[in-house]
Design a protein that fits this description.
Blueprint (H helix, E strand, L loop, with lengths): L2 H17 L10 H8 L25 E5 L6 H7 L3 E6 L2 H14 L3 E5 L13 E6 L10 H10 E12 L24 E2 L7 H8 L6 E2 L2 H10 L2 E9 L16 E8 L1
Parallel strand pairs: 1-2, 1-4, 2-3, 4-5
Antiparallel strand pairs: 5-9, 6-7, 8-9
Helix pairs in contact: 2-3
Length: 261
């Protein structure tokens, strides 16, 4: 499979995840959006830890881009809290989850389908705030994502991003959660480099999303390189109930807050 085919494959894969009730495809309930109207809300960039309240800019009337963040979870909450939200995602079915919440709860939101590495549909300096949860693990190259974010943010705009610690990808067949933590793969990691292996071939044949383990140099250093200033950082991991073997040993996700200088 060529890199150019990854975007389409992962689009279909995430559409399928909606049908399979993946945890990141389940819309929030009405009570959650009603609380957000009063300023009482919590959303995540990574699996479990809520984003610190002091990371958020003033949301009332702000132009917010939920980047590769569809699924009916974060975007409706931000809209209820007063932001003018645009949801941008590669999966039509995921966008439908946000439309469902918007229609149900009377929220005004915009919905745009597209590749997170190409934000040319937006004018430069269109947004005050970008919320980008753990989704760039599904694109082959992450630097274009940071470049595009920098371009569409206004000066002083805030980028919040969550991403996977690349150490998750060095172990043999880790995503099968078989407990085998033998080091096997080098970083940066790409599923495309291992398409002849059984678990990758199964992922392609069964329509699972293809994944990429970007280095911290590209994830964090890449933000700095395109002109962001890092202003916040924390790490996260799955809970015990997720039965993730790696989370017993180290934090497997990272969240950053950055400002366009």
């Amino acid at each position: 499979m060529k890199e150019t085919d990854v975007c389409k494959h992962n689009q279909v894969a995430w559409d399928n995840q909606v049908d399979q009730c993946n945890r990141w495809t389940k819309p929030v309930d009405r009570e959650t959006t009603q609380r957000a109207i009063t300023g009482d809300f919590a959303i995540v960039l990574t699996p479990t830890k809520p984003v610190p309240a002091n990371w958020f800019p003033s949301l009332k009337g702000s132009e917010a881009l939920c980047l590769a963040s569809a699924g009916g979870q974060q975007a409706p909450i931000l809209a209820a809290a007063g932001a003018r939200v645009t949801v941008f995602d590669n999966s039509p079915r995921q966008l439908d989850q946000d439309r469902f919440v918007a229609d149900r709860d009377g929220l005004e939101m915009k919905f745009v389908e597209g590749d997170m590495a190409d934000l040319s549909v937006f004018s430069d300096e269109s947004f005050d705030f970008i919320f980008h949860p753990c989704s760039n693990t599904f694109v082959p190259k992450v630097l274009p994502v940071w470049q595009e974010c920098h371009g569409v943010l206004r000066s002083g705009g805030v980028l919040m991003a969550g991403f996977t610690n690349p150490m998750r990808y060095i172990f043999d067949d880790e995503r099968e959660q078989n407990g085998n933590l033998e080091v096997r793969y080098s970083l940066p990691y790409s599923d495309l480099d291992h398409v002849d292996e059984g678990h990758i071939r199964e992922a392609i044949n069964t329509g699972k999303p293809l994944e990429f383990g970007h280095t911290l140099e590209d994830q964090i250093g890449g933000q700095l390189r395109v002109g962001f200033m890092l202003t916040g950082f924390y790490q996260d991991r799955f809970t015990k109930s997720d039965n993730d073997p790696l989370s017993a040993f180290f934090d497997t996700f990272v969240a950053t807050r950055a400002v366009k200088r």
